[in-house]
Amino acid sequence: MPLRRSAPLLLAFSLAAGCATRSADVKPLPTSAADFAGWPCDAIADEIERVQQKAADVAYAVDANVANNMIVLTLGTTVFWPALLAMRPDGPDAEALARLKGRYEALSAAAAQRACPPMSDALPPARAAALPVALGERLVYEERAASGGPATELGLRLQALKRGELNFQLDHGPATRALPWRQDPAGNALAPQPYRVLSWTRLLHRDLQLGDVLSGELHGPDTAERTARVRGQVIAVGPTVVSGRQFDGATIELFGDVPNGVASTRVDGVMVVDRHSGVLLRLELRSGNPEYALRRKLVRIETPG
Questions:
Q1: How far does CA 168 lie from the centroid of its chain?
Q2: Nearest to 61 by CA among 211, 215, 200
Q3: What is the pTM of this model?
Q4: Which residues contact 24 (CB under 8 A, 6 or more apart)?
């Protein structure tokens, strides 16, 4: 039985007249299912997850490059390939998508040949155990305005580990009501978080390497009105210790523009994230818009009980 996905990945897009073609027009480059004949079902499922995430990254990179703002993506564990990408059917991005489609089809065929069970949304235990944070732990951040002043406490308690996402509960201290916070394994919020907390979408990707160039969006407290388009570059990678816990940090230099009334102003700063889990370790932003001028730093990790 072929691998199925239990939580569909939803993609919606609109096409500007005359400027794009559906990804269904991009033909897959054939890959043989025999290449994966000896793979166990868990390895096939992990590779399908990786291929589909990479395909989504390609889709967003094309969208950002042509400034169409066409694709709205809710990350999960399935890519609906015919609706994945609105793009010109040529060039290196189309070729990359064709290779990924071919690999996906070969992996699916190999799964069918091995009669692999339906693919679960739950993160496999071995991968969960390799993460630097565990279920039930609360990540405690100190946040303050870049200009100084009193600090506030922001907590994220890890509630669930899934393929394609980490589920947290967000609080502003023990006396506040916890709210859901979902992010992908790279560290991006799966949607702008409407909790008067700055978040980011489609900025990070997995397996960050020194020199990687990134682009995405920062979302302030009023996400419908104030979204900053930013770019970044990985300027350092290496071990980082926080609260006695070792992370594999990637330091990213950020720069971009943010609305400021009827005009716009610059925003720049530094972000440090763990490359294995996407956990934020440090964020420092400077901007003439005070909503984008802040410091957020992981200061401790609280274990259950």
A1: 14
A2: 215
A3: 0.78
A4: 81, 82
Size of the chain, expressed as the number of residues it contains:
305
pLDDT in tens, 184-228: 999 999 877 666 789 998 899 888 999 999 999 998 876 555 688
Tokens for 56? 């989504």
SS3 sequence of the chain: CCCCECCCCEEEECCCCCCCEEHHHCCCCCCCHHHHCCCCHHHHHHHHHHHHHHHHHHHHHHHHHHCCCCEEEECCCCCCHHHCCEECCCHHHHHHHHHHHHHHHHHHHHHHHCCCCCECCECCHHHHHCCCCCCCCEEEEEEEECCEEEEEEEEEEEEEEECCEEEEEEECCCCCCCEEEEECCCCCECCCCCCCCCEEECCCCCCCCCCCEEEEEEECCCCCCCEEEEEEEEEEEEEEEECCEEEEEEEEEEEEEEEECCEEEEEEEEEEEECCCCCEEEEEEEECCHHHCEEEEEEEEECCC
Tokens representing residue 157 in the block: 């308690």
d(CA 140, CA 156): 7
Distance (Å, whole) CA 257 – CA 221: 16
Q: How far apart are the first and last CA of the chain?
A: 43
Give me the long-range contacts of 35-40 (CB less than 8 A, separation at least 24).
Answer: 35/106, 35/110, 36/106, 36/107, 36/110, 37/110, 37/113, 39/110
Q: The tokens of 183 are what?
A: 């992010």
pLDDT in tens, 215-270: 999 988 765 556 888 999 999 999 999 988 999 999 999 999 987 666 678 999 99
Amino acid at 80: F
| Strand-strand pairing, 280-287 and 263-274 | antiparallel
